[in-house]
Fold each of these.
Amino acid sequence: MSFYLLAYHCSDCKTLIDADDVEEPLVECAQMIRDADELYQHRRFAEAASVFERIVKTYEKAKLIHASYVLIFGIYAPLVNCYRRTDQLPQSAAALRRLVKIMENNPAIAEHHPEKGDFYWNLGETFSKLVSRGGASPAVMARYRQEERECYSRAAEIRTMCYGPKHFATLEAKAALDKL
């Protein structure tokens, strides 16, 4: 039984959820996150990615965890890093897309949140690497280039609002955009 909260409204879907219904899955999920973090700290990135993927499949997809800080920074951010370390760029792009979508749809996260700008930057950089790698059909390459442009543009917009137009992070995003 939860001692702190009887029920809450999900910030994503507004459903009223009884705290007791989510407490046990969250405890189990927290243990899985600790296990994945330990693998990550030991540079066992492929194994860590597998645990993070299981968390997403088991808890997020089943709506046992709603879009929240835990998903963004406890699961998706290290999952993206695992994919990058193991050179799985398409998977990294998919995880970054989901992460950005969570941030965009969560009313508790500001429209121009600095970390949102950084995730857009990382997504643009991932598409840039996919384009450089080549090997995809012309239509897929055109889509990658378009998504790269959109991500760098959004990163520049957010960074301009957060840091100002002359900050190095803003200039970095604008320079990447200008190169396209």
Amino acid sequence: MSQAVTVEIARYNEVASESMVYDFLPLAENEDGKALLLAMARPNVLDKVLDLPKRMGLTVIDLIPMSVAVVNALHASIGPMESPCVFVDVGHTVSEVLVANKEGILFARSFMSGGAMFTDAVAAATDQPSRHAEETKVTQGSMDGGDKVVSQALHEAADQWLAELETCLSVYSTSYQADRYR
């Protein structure tokens, strides 16, 4: 498996403007072959992320995506999940989706919609700058009441976000037809 990853990274690095650091995690094996989670990052981005712990005298022993950490923590605390479960981490600009079961992570994808999309919708609807719209979203944001303009903006953003999530999960459903998630 590591040879296949090395080949993929080499192909990517041929077209990338800079080399990436990478690691991978085997996910599952089925009749179509083996699946893996491949993570890549620009070294300068990792250096920035690791600078604070380094200045604090901490030694970082591993970096893992947030959603993978949640799945691992659940496995450790409540035991394996019998049927596939969906985990969604809504970040500022990116949402990560994982489907996992007792064997581990079956599927991982991300899409370019996150909390900022909701803030931008409030900003556009209320003619506020983003930093004020963020506060409005947090303090007055409700899809079931509150300010009607804010509520409508949040509904529209939620519809867009849910469409992205449905698209992402349809890829999982196509790949793992027998393994329905909950």
Amino acid sequence: MDLKTLHIYSRPKLVEQCVAACKEGKVVILYGGVKIGKSTLAELVRRRLSNLLIYEDIPDVNLDNLIRFCCQKNSRSCASIITTQGPLNTTVSLVDTSRIVQIEVPLLNDEEIAELIDTYSPSRDYTRFIKAHTCGHPVLVKTLCSYLSSCNWIVDETVFAKMLNLKFMNRVQPYLHYNRIG
């Protein structure tokens, strides 16, 4: 399925970084906040690599053991990506850190937000407005874009005041959805 149809920003630099590390036989650890796009990024990498194992949402307490397991199995012919909320603490870990690459999945920047907004074909540039209300969190950007798109990108003063007072979630709740690719 087309990423534009799913309203997913493809994060090409991060995808390339992951692909390169996987091709070198390294275990890739994608970490970042909740619903920031770690699993989506891993799936985008899978589209580029045929033999990729993805371990999603691994708790910190299991991370060390899983990385050791992946390092034993990992080679250029079979790569691994692990998604987790925090990075591996390399000062206390017994893992050979030369065999891993840790990549933080950040919030979307202004350019990425604008590109994601464009998938909704708005009537004008809403980047600053959406960035101010979402801080670049991909799910919030998509939710706000979906809502605004359903309103033909018109926000009246009453709705805007509710958004600023954080009473917006009741109106947005029906638009909250998480598209996963696969």
